[in-house]
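## tool: complex_structure
## caller: assistant
## args:
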Amino acid sequence: MGNMTSANVDWSALADALSRIERLNADDSGLLEFGLQQRGGIFVEKGRVCWVAASGLGRRLRSLILVYSEIDEAELDRVCEQCRVRGSMVGQTLVEEGLITPDELESALRHHSAESLIELCRSPLPTRFRVHTGRGYAPRFTFRPLDLLLDAVGTCFPERQLEARRELEAFAEPGTQAVAFVVDSQSDCLLPVVEVGTHSVEGLRALGRWASAMPDASLELAAAPSFTLAVTANGDSVLVWWNAGLLYTVLCQDRARLAAVTSRHMARA
Amino acid sequence: MADERALSADRGSAGSTSIDEVIAQACEPVPGVENGALVLLAEGMLLGGFGSGRAFDREPLVRAAVRCLGASNALPRPSQSALEFIEYAFVTSRQIVVILRGAHRPTVALALVCARESNLAFVLGAARRALGYIEANVELDQWGI
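## result:
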């Protein structure tokens, strides 16, 4: 499929756009437009992302459907033409006719949306939200703004996303709040790439800003910690460690959990 | 920083004891402690310290403390109260470095380097007590802290 490059991506603008969607009311639907000339936008249904379109990337969705599913090109062409005549949506029609599974469509849509959003955020563009007045988008294939952020980062750093998933699998238990960040040398910031638990775009941005102090402090100490522990006044603690361009944070809300996470991390290290 | 020792001698309390001596005395019970520094966070200034080396050698501890606690280090969380971090521990293969914010004087921090063999929980517990002792026995008021 080919990796996208993170060069020239304005990650701050990308996260701003997704935060803006997060702040919409749960009933809001419409399009967050990028650029005065409508370079593309994020389609939103009841506060969730349906799809991202960017000019010049329309054909890419077709390629991704072929990659993620078993459908052949001729069949896809037939459905595309049928949808063009009827004015129906290709993805939904493919699923309704049993030609691809809902999961395959979701994977293709999310991948395409991530690539489109990255392209929209390569240069500064004004954005505005327009409430839609026509028919709504199918809510069946919607996803969270945070999913789109993780997909976008993962599209630029696919190997690191896989590595982070493997690392955090060991900590995936009910109630766990863990996040892996890619250390992006281009933007000199931490970009969230995998999460365990429930977070928000704004929450992960804040966590990334806060966590970046720890590698900075360890540089001052000329030390390479196995892990770093940060403790709050009320006893919450966050275990932080980093290696191979990835930084991990695990929130522990009691001592037993902290002990378990620390020993699991040390056993893996 | 060069006149740190002069400041220590002039401004120490607890009788004729210097700040350095108060800090050293307070930190003596911390398991495996090797050296330490009391830091004024806003200015990134070393108030006193103990252990091997000179004031200059404790500069990395000062800078690390400022990185961790100098700016606002609260972690805002949507629809929950922010997490206010007051302690950090860096565990390496050779050492444990703990950095604690003052409970009564949040503008000061204590940074300690301890041997790796020490128990982290004991180090943190003893370091908290040491910082409490320092806050109670070093006259920081006259510095406007």
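## assistant note: Chain A has two domains: 11-143, 157-268. The beta strands of chain A are 30-34, 40-45, 48-54, 127-131, 177-184, 189-196, 227-232, 237-243, 246-252. Handing back to user.
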